[in-house]
Structures are given as structure tokens and as C-alpha cells.
Amino acid sequence: MNEQSLEPDELRTLFLFEGLSDEQIGWIAEHGRVETFPQGTTVVREGEPATCFYVLLSGTLRMTRAVRGEEVEMHRSDQRGVYCGATQFFLEKRDEHPYGASVYALTDTAFFLLPAEELAERFRAWFPMSAHLLEGMFLGSRNAQLVIGQRERLLALGALSAGLTHELNNPAAAAVRATSSLRERVAGMRHKLALLARHEIEPGLLEKLIDVQETLVKRVANAPGLTAMQAADREDELTDWLDDHDVADGWDLAPIFVPAGITASDLDEVGGTVGEEFLNAALRWLGYALETETLMGEIEDATTRISKLLAAAKQYSQMDRAPHQWIDVHDGLDSTLVMLSGKIGAGVRVVKEYDRSVPQVPAYAGELNQVWTNLVDNAVAAMEGRGTLTVRTAVENDRVMIEIGDTGHGVPPENRQRIFEPFFTTKPVGDGTGLGLDISWRIVVNRHHGDLRVQSEPGDTRFQVLLPLTEQPHS
């Protein structure tokens, strides 16, 4: 790299220095120097001591930051006068703030350099109030972003936990109720079996009764669904049969037999097998067996539901999975909808328009789940508890497109250019931090080399995420 000086008059052509006094511009000219960097040169490297303040004179620079081990491009510019390097020189404890980004020369470039330590001393002497204000703004903004970011994550975790707890509670409560009822039915079966034994039923007859029981129990899982009117007619028919055969409290058995698909001809078969003497006890035993089978089916359904919910939670959190992998985007979308089902509520209809031919994409699945969470959460909030949430996937050229649509009030035109800015929110004070879409933008655009865009009008807002189908080179 080559070094040279710059005259005060030329310094005044840079917007940073145009308002300085003759004394100040003289100091800048005396202590600064011009350095040139060939194309491809590293100008400064992130994390190294911030020793110099750089002002671009010519050429094009590229600025990057390391994000979880990957270098992500933040900015590139050829505008004369843009600055980089020790941009936090005004801080009192400047040695605690190294270069915050790496800068590369995309073309042959020239920079005007100032020593950061000496510049900081002069700056505080020339502009003491501005120095204090800048330091306060920087530290306040940094602390606010840390606190609000942490709050955002805690709120998201709380909402997801509450939704998952709500979803788990229903099948868990159903399993508890069914288990309690099952205990009563098993006790009843033991009692009826004892009654049959006391009547000294023949072993061969008991075997036939067990065969009939097994045949009828197998029908429970495949019993046809009935309308309320059909079920009532079947119950009346079976009640009449039970009354005709002097079975006590037949009205109590009919509602057990009908859902299991038992007909009057089936009861005729039972009667023909055991005879009138054992009919009452045999039918009671059969009723308990059918109820037991039904209850075990309910327990199986409830525990299966719990297992699926836990699987969705595990998929959402990407537990035990590599951070970067080839993924099916539908898995993450489905698990996010499950995790947010409690917040989505009964008033919002969820429509899935999935193109199942969409190929897998290389991605950080856990981070994309955070994007889906932010977009779905915003969509639900925009609809205020009532509307249609549409989740659509498709292939668009060489990218996968994931679209989250809602029927809410829409994003006003004046806000569409600002919604991805950090801390910008249209929600009431205290309801939103303004970081959700900023985080989503950085995950999609910077982390995955994709695109995030919005189309909106009242009643039809669509956020579209586009992800490349192939591995992208590191920035």
C-alpha cells in the first residue's frame, strides 16, 4: 500500500470535514494520511484493535461481519466520503471496542486514515457535548437492543410454552379420565366373571362366550359413524330387544352397544350361545369388555397426540440435529403451527397450500423456525383473532418460495419500506419490540442468501421468503 497526504482544501470536499474550522481542518490534514489498497486487499479485520478511522476517497469497499462462524456481507459502497474502521473512536473506553467489521477492497481503493486515539482526544476537546451525546446514544442503543432482544426471546419462549402446555393438557386430561373409567370397567368385568363362575357355567359355554366377545370387540375400531338420529334409532331398537328378553336396565346397555356397531342380530347370537339363564350377566360382561376396548382406544389416541406434540416441539427446537442441514421446509412450518396453535385460536382458519414436490433446501432449520414464528405471530396479530391464515409453498425459478398470508388490515404503503428496520413497530407501546422482522430479514437475507418481501393491501397481506435451492458460497 502507498501513503501520501491530503491538503485542507481537498479535505473540505468530504462531507465529514466540510464544516470544520481552519484550525480543525489543519489538524486533520497534519495527522491524517492517504493509503491505497489494491483490489482484494483486506483493509481492516473484525476483532483486531481499532487503531484507525478510514474515509473512502475512491474505489469500492465491502464490509462483512462474522455470524456464527460464517462471514456475512453487511454493506458495500463506492460513495466518496463513507467511513469505516474505528467508528466508535469517541468512546471513553475505546480499547474495549475493536473493529466491529471486516473491510475489503473490491477494487483498487484509496482511504484517508486518522489515528483513532488522537482523533478521539481532539474530538472530545472540540465537541465535548456531542461526544457525550454520541457515547450515550451508542451505549443506550446497544443496551436496549440486548435487553429487548432477550425480552423478545423470553416472550416468544413463554408464548410457545403456553401454547404447548395448552395443547398437551387436552389429551393428557382425556387419558386421565379414560384411565379412571377403565379401572371401573375392569373391576366390573371381574365382578361379572365372578357371578358367571358362581352360576357354575360350563367351561365350553364360557369359551364360546369369550369367542363371541372377541369377535364383537374387534368391531369397535371399525364401527361405522352414525348421525345423532341414526344412533337414537339403533338405541331404541336394542332397548326394545333387551326389554323383550328381560335384561335389567337395558336402556343403560344400549348406548354402549350402538357405538361399537352391535346390532340386534348380534344379541340374538349371544342369547343363543349362553341361554336365558346367563344372558343378563353375559351381556353386562360384554358391555364392560366393549367399554374397556373403547377406553383403551381413547387412551391410545390421547397418548399418540401427546407423542406427536412432543415430536413437533423437538423438531421446532431442532434438538439433537446439526445446525446446518438439507431440510424439508414443510416440517418446520408444520411444527411451528403446532407450537403456535394455542395463540392462533379457534377464530383463525389455517389453510395449507403445500407443493409437496418442493425439493429440500440447505438451511439452518432452527433459525428458519424463528422466521416462521415471527411471520405467523404477526399475521395472527394483524387479524385480531379472526380470519384466514394461509401457508403456501412453491418453486419460483431457482428458489423455494414460502408465503405466509393473512386477511388482516394490511401494511400501509408508508410503512412497507420501514417494517424491516430494527425497533420499528406499528403495535401499541409495550406490545411489540420491532425486532421480529429485523431478525427475520437478517436470517433470510444475510444468513441464507435469500430474500424476504411483502405484498399488502387491506384483507390480503403476504410475506414471502425465498430460499436458494443450492448451497451458496460463503460471503
TrEMBL record:
Residues 16-114 form the Cyclic nucleotide-binding domain. It holds the Pfam family cNMP_binding. InterPro entries: cNMP-bd_CS, cNMP-bd_dom, cNMP-bd_dom_sf, HATPase_C_sf, HATPase_dom, His_kinase_dom, RmlC-like_jellyroll, Sig_transdc_His_kin-like_C. It comes from the Bacteria. Its EC number is 2.7.13.3. It catalyses: ATP + protein L-histidine = ADP + protein N-phospho-L-histidine. SMART domains: cNMP (SM00100), HATPase_c (SM00387). Keywords: Kinase, Transferase, Two-component regulatory system. GO terms for biological process: phosphorelay signal transduction system. GO terms for molecular function: protein histidine kinase activity. Residues 299-471 form the Histidine kinase domain. This is histidine kinase.
